[in-house]
Amino acid sequence: MKDGFQTDSVWLCAVLCYTYTFDALLEISITTGEGKKITDFFLDIPSLDAEEIDLELKEGRLQISDCNALIKNYSRVTGLLKQLHREGRQSWKSHAYQEAWCAGKFPDGRKIK
Predict the structure, then answer these.
(1) pLDDT by residue (tens digit) across 69-103?
(2) Distance CA 1, CA 102 (A)
(3) Is 104 exposed, middle or buried (0-12, 13-18, 19+ CB in 10 A)?
(4) Which of 14, 28, 67, 83 could form a disulfide with 92 if both were Cys (CB 3.0 to 4.6 A apart)?
(5) What confidence score (pLDDT) does residue 1 get?
(6) Does position 104 have pLDDT exceeding 80, yes or no?
(7) What's the rounded Cα separation, in Å, for the pair 57 and 70?
(8) What is the pLDDT of residue 113?
(9) 7, 38, 48, 49: which is closest to 25 by C-alpha?
(10) Long-range contacts: 45-50, Cβ < 8 Å, 24+?
(11) Is 101 helix (H, G, I), strand (E, B) or coil?
């Protein structure tokens, strides 16, 4: 079951996009608090799997078989952040998120009540 996962780490976001494809990234939200910007990434993936991947990344046990694909995902995520900064925007939502919302559904198919 995909219950969703949220992180503020751009590297973890890139690793999760590498693992689950970039389509798993649903939303980026930038908030300002205590004088600094906080960036949150919302992904449509199983939270327990994401927590395990986060632990492996922090402990240095994460195995990457295709570094080029990871770097491409990191570049896409940071490119979105740069675009948001240039445009003065505070959030980004994927097309899958927008289309599902307009159809009255969450990205995982559940209906919005």
Answers:
(1) 999 999 999 999 999 999 999 999 987 665 555 55
(2) 23
(3) exposed
(4) 28
(5) 47
(6) no
(7) 13
(8) 57
(9) 7
(10) 45/2, 45/4, 45/5, 45/16, 45/19, 45/20, 46/1, 46/2, 46/3, 46/5, 47/3, 47/4, 47/5, 50/5, 50/7, 50/12, 50/16
(11) helix
Instruction: Say which residue the tokens 């693992």 belong to.
Output: 19
Whether the pLDDT of residue 48 is over 60: the answer is yes
In this structure, is the dihedral angle defined by the CA atoms of residues 68, 74, 77 and 83, taken in order, positive or negative? negative
Residue 8 is which amino acid? Answer: D
